[in-house]
Predict the structure.
Amino acid sequence: MNHDQAFWLPYTANRAFWKSPRVIKAARGHYYTADDGQQLLDAFSGLWTSGLGHCHPAIVSAVQEQVATLDYSMGFQVTNDRAIALAREVADLAPAGLDRVFFTNSGSESADTALKIALAYHRARGEGQRTRLIGRERGYHGVNFGGMSVGGIPGNRKVFSAVMLPGVDHIRHTYSHADMAFSRGQPTWGCDLAEDLERVVALHDASNIAALIVEPVSGSTGILVPPIGYLQRLREICDKHGILLIFDEVITAFGRVGAPFAAARFGVTPDIITTAKGLTNGVVPMGAVIVREEIYQALMQGPDNAVELFHGYTYSGHPLAAAAGLAAMKVYREEDSFARALALEPVFEEAIHALKGEPHVIDIRNFGLMGGIELAPRPGAPGARGYEVFLKCFEAGVVIRNGGDILQFSPFLDSTPDELTRIFETVRDALRAVA
Ligand SMILES: Cc1ncc(COP(=O)(O)O)c(C=O)c1O
């Protein structure tokens, strides 16, 4: 075999990739530099990760300084000053009452950690029979066994169907093409879809259910925006039945929806929030699970010297990641990033919806600085058209993402209107060029 091709890329068409590799060697601000020198405008902020732009000088220097000061310290029974400081800042930013922060290294680990905390919480309160977990169709909570099981994207589940966690149900997804195509922002139709949670509760009895996990705005499945009132209704039903509500904010936290968290934007406070990506602006891998104080307190049982939760990662609270996170939090504050993103939202909305009527476009959805353009699949070749549009945009110097036939956009929090125009004009040309 060709050892230059030893790298098995994640979520990638590897055989096609190696015929024509796309390799980035540098980045600054809103642009990548490819290995052949091509400048590429990044319309996806990394992979939803880098809302502040690439190689932000404040984050780069914080990480450089940290690596020369403390590279790593033991993470069990000992920690480092950066992790303590970042936990405090994240808790301060989180909705009131969510005061405890458990660090992970990714969104997938955050999802599994949140599910385990939910189970441990109920058991600690003497309701150990509450073990059932509820996800939602089309949800994405990463690729580990817990997140995969509560996730609802068929392609992620198919091959592993036999080894899903037991005791998992899914409520209906929130999309109806007939009722909400080309909605701008939150659809007005569909609040009642939340009642599907009552169906699952009636089936199993609330006394057996630990938690519901949803993305406030579904990202990877292609930007499904919650109908007005839907999340509020989920909160009410969870409260009524003692079910913990987990918001997976791996994408939506840290400015992506024009607020520190989608919870704040929608005015719905979950019991647990999972994050990753924007926590460090993608500079060093890190995730965080932010937990309601009562949940933490319920677990603080037994002798003082006993470990309360048998869970953790070698790199939980890694000092380099924490230094990147602290610097990112400072930049979010200093650049007023969340408000800037909110102010940019109407410009983004106009720019993306201007593609209505272009070839193959059957829906356009947006919320915050998250956008999706759904294409009609080519008969007999689902996903091919989306992939070809992605390739054409790349050749034209703009990096977008396609999830099958849904084009996805996640511009920088400080994008300029001109950049947005360029992104969508490039997509327009690509749509006109593909069969
Ligand atoms: C909502 C959500 N949860 C979890 C994940 C998984 O994160 P990671 O790839 O860091 O494991 C993602 C990744 O896109 C995500 O969008």
Observations:
- The longest strand covers residues 98-104.
- The chain has a mean pLDDT of 98.
